[in-house]
Structure formats: structure tokens, C-alpha cells
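Marked as duplicate of an earlier ticket. Keeping the data here for the record.
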Amino acid sequence: MGSGDNGGVTGLDVLAPRLPSPLHEVRDERFGRRGLRLLLKRDDLIHPELIGNKWRKLVPNVEAAGGRALVTFGGAWSNHLRATAAAGRLLGFPTVGVVRGHELADRPLNPSLTRCTADGMRLHFVDRSTYRHKSEPDTLAAILAAAGARDAYVVPEGGSNAEAVHGCRALGVELRGSAEVVAVACGTGGTLAGLAAGLAPGQRALGIPVLRGGFLEADVQALQERAFGARTGCWSVDDRFHCGGYARTTPELEAFAQDFEDRHGLPVERLYVAKMLYGLTTLAAEGAFARGTALAAVVTGRPSA
């Protein structure tokens, strides 16, 4: 797959993605009264199991794996692990999920990990200290050996690597000419890195981190340097809307998400999408965007069943 194309891939057409994903405008007076337009980029409709940026990140890595087993990393509720397991089932290649938390090995699997195993993923649990050092070569080699996956193709936690960034570039290409500002929720930063590279001059990407720590800007720049050789496109991040960190929400965020669902009939995923929409609405209220600006919000996922 080339850096600007993620459809019609040989051997992957069985997945039948809906690309480009739909883009439609919603009427919301919180934006309208400030002279702003709000558009939703429905990446959650790309595929029923490889949803949103999971499709865009995984497909180029599946190609790079060339049929080898694919090993990746995540917590006990990782959407990335679930998407990787689903891709393995759909395309017929083995998957191994390295799960943070060795203590979980002796407990009943939660619904997310149960789904992974049902899709054929073999789980390998590691202690949290080892997991923190998983990107170090010696630690990674030891994990792969213990998991019986020495020859597997490795995808990092969250799926963000140079291949994924190239895959997400297509998201920006699809949005060229549609909006001056494109907002996306960010975990590991790969989607923002690719999105910004694909947009046209005069457009900018806005990342809303869902993890606390203030590390995302450096990580996105590093991903772009690996993928493209330099920082690419116009982009920024706003760290104010993580609600305390990953998987954390607040009553205010819950009320906002419920209200958005009631207004627009769109189920709002809470851990990523709600924070992005809340951030965009807050920025609009603060006067961060000039009148006449079109804002596109990337819906990267939907609530778990």
C-alpha cells in the first residue's frame, strides 16, 4: 500500500472497507452562533470490526508482515488488541497479544480479552515493570522469546509506527478542501502524525490528547520524522481535555456526551471521541476559531457493544 492509498489492496479486499469514510455537516448552535460549521468525518463507519484509525493503522502493517504472525501490545481493555485479533481472523494470519499485567493471567478474562481469544489471538501476560521497558531491544527480545514469537512482525502499542503514519496520511488526503481545522483525539499520536501530513496547505490538524503527561507533541514529531524525514504539515495539540488520563471521564464529560447524542443521534464513544468533541466545543466558546471557519471532527470509534 502506498502512503496515500488504503483501499483495494491485494489480499485485503475481503475486508471491504468503506473508503473514503462519510463526511457530513451537523447543525449545532454552539458552533453556528459563532459563525462556525461543524462536520463529522465518520471513520467509525469504515469497517464493522476494524473501526476508524484502527483500519488505517493496521492495514499497512499487515502488508509489511507479509503473512507472518503479528505480535502487538496493550492493556486489558485495549481496542488495538481487539482490532488486531479481528484482522487476524478475517485475513487468516496468527496474532499474539502481549498484555500489561502478569497478575491477569490467573483471572477470568474480561469481555475485551475474551473477544481477542475468540478471534484466535494468543495472549501473553507480562509484569508491568517489564511492559514499561518493552521498546528496549533486549526486553523486547526476551518478551518475544517467552511468547514463542521470535519471528513475528512487531506492531507497537496503539499501532503507531511509520507504516501506520503513512496509512493515516490518507485521512488527511480525504479531507483536503473540506475544512480549515481538523480535530482528532490522540492516544499514541500516529493518526495525528499522518493526518497532518495528508492535509493541504492552509489546513491544520488539532490533536486532543486523551492521556495526561504532555508528551504527545514530541511523540508526534518523532513519528513524522521516522515516516517522512521531518516534521510535516501544520498541527498542534491541546492538552486540557484528557479528564485526568486514559480511561478517565468526569460527570461533566458524561453530561456533554449524552447531550451531543441527544442533539445529533450519534452514539459517542467516551474515552476518545467525547474528549475531542468536548475540546472542540470549548475552543469554539473561547473564540479560538475565526468566523467562517469549517471544523471537521474525526470520529475514530464508537461505543463498545
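See parent ticket for discussion. The beta strands are 23-26, 37-41, 70-74, 95-100, 122-126, 153-154, 181-186, 204-209, 235-237, 294-298.
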